[in-house]
Amino acid sequence: MNNAKSKAVILLVEDSLTQAKRLERLLLENDFAVISARDGEEGYRAAVEHEPDIILTDVMMPKMNGYEMCRRVKNTDSTKATPVILLTSLTDPGDVIQGLQCGADNFLTKPYDGQHLIRRIQHVLTNVELRKTGQAKVSEEVFFAGRYFKLNADRMQIIDLLLSTFEAAVLQSSQLEKLGGDYRNAMEEVKKVQANLHTIMETTSDAIVVVGEENRVIYLNPAAELMFDRFASDLTGKPFPISLPEEGSKKEIIIERPGGEKVVADFRTASCTWDGKHVRFATIRDITEMARLRDLLK
Predict the structure, then answer these.
(1) In contact, 230 and 207? CB cutoff 8 Å
(2) Which CATH number goes with the domain that contains 228?
């Protein structure tokens, strides 16, 4: 082991180069010395050769996974006192059993906050002297998930591992609660935007018609009801009676109302999404008076 006055040496075992570089930078910035390995086999050899102060290892790796590497470290005289922290998603409760079986000292769940990782390492290093007292191991058989498991671990290792697991659950719960709050806030904003859009569409003087598949009317606003002198229920779900111009273009149309009155209108369309479906969004503006003045000037 390293001298207490020197930097603590951490053996980092991570097969992802990106994750390894990120972790190495974080550890160096917090005044740790770092030795890196890319898989469990390389990690075990490095542990025996360098005898680090602590081992930080991923679980899912090629050649040899983190559980097996930890088991070998704990069964080797020169490294058995070295604390091992497992980096895992901890999605399966069986991960805790495997952690106890292989002799792991601590869990850290992915994704993790960098400063939380540093605090966890410092916690383990603070308690490392307790691991040297040679506490008697406990041999227990437990029934879990339909199977019996024999656990050989000292009491402090069991307590520390289970506490780290509980802490991970609390952190995940807090993160989910925060995400839930963010989601609720986002939904409130969406509702505000929808309410504002609804207000605009319901109060604008331009007629708005949404046309979907088979040219059928999905929605029309109050101004469109006035424009066509028809209730929305009379037109919704039925084919739109006017041919749509090409997207982005406009045309002048004449709308003949049920009573025989004719309305000259500017007709424009655009494509958009409505309830997740592709639709045509039409705006129709009454230009009857403008057309009358235009004709007088001819």
Answers:
(1) no
(2) 3.30.450.20
Residue 198 resides in a domain: no
Report which secondary-structure segment, H or E, holds 196.
helix 155-203
Measure the CA–CA gap between 211 and 278, rounded to whole angstroms. 9
Provide the whole-model pTM.
0.50
CA distance 132 to 83: 11
Same domain for 175 and 215, yes or no, is no
Contact 30, 7 (CB under 8 A): no
Beta bridge partners of 232: none
Number of independent structural domains in the chain: 2
Question: What is the tens place of the pLDDT at every residue in 57-79?
Answer: 998 888 899 999 999 999 999 99
Q: Which two tokens stand for residue 32?
A: 């740790």
- The reply to whether 106 and 208 lie within a common domain is no
Q: What share of the chain is helix, strand, coil (3-state, %, to 5)?
A: 45, 25, 30
Residue 246 confidence class, pLDDT cut points 50, 70, 90: confident
* Domain with 267 in it: 204-297
Q: Based on the domain organization, do 164 and 285 belong to the same domain?
A: no
Residue 234 CA to residue 278 CA, distance in Å, equals: 23
For residue 269 the two structure tokens come to 């369309």
